[in-house]
Amino acid sequence: MAYVIKTTFDNGNNGLVESANGKTETSFEGKSLSPYELFLGGYTSCLHSTFKSIADKKRIPFASATYDVVGVKREEIPTYLKEMTTVITFTGVAKEKEKAIEKSMTMAARYCSISAMLKMIAEMNYEIIFK
């Protein structure tokens, strides 16, 4: 599967990322999402999509999932990610389904293609919270 995007920048550091599915702004000047923020958003979208597919197959209901991610870049050039912590907060999960949610998220972290790619360069940490 090929993904196609177009990014157009002004004469500074502000751009517009477009695809057939939508568009969003990007900026190095704090005016919109930075490139790494866009990347981490893509990671959480991939992780959640993979998790949701697994949870649906196992018939594990939940009301919502919120992903809070902290990515730490190394100091050496190139300054790629060296550590990531993902905290996932679930609501609407029955107590007896919490273990199944945890196992499903472990599987999702293994099968999500972006997560698998990130594991090659960064230490990945996960925490699950139930509310």
SSE blueprint and pairings:
Blueprint: E1 6-9, E2 14-19, E3 22-27, H1 35-57, E4 64-73, E5 81-91, H2 98-111, H3 113-119, E6 123-130
Name its key features.
131 residues, alpha+beta, GMP Synthetase, Chain A, domain 3, 2 domains
Q: Average pLDDT, to the nearest integer?
A: 97
Under the CATH scheme, the architecture of the largest domain is 2-Layer Sandwich
The coarse silhouette is globular
Distance between the termini: 37 Å
What can you tell me about this protein's structure?
It contains 3 helices and 6 strands; from the N terminus they run βββαββααβ. The chain has helices at 35-57, 98-111, 113-119; strands at 6-9, 14-19, 22-27, 64-73, 81-91, 123-130. The strands form 2 sheets. The chain has a 3-stranded antiparallel β-sheet, with no helix packed on it. α1 crosses α2 (98-111). The N and C termini lie far apart (37 Å). The mean pLDDT is 97.
Question: Summed up, what is this model?
Answer:
This protein is α+β, with helices and mostly antiparallel strands and 131 residues long.
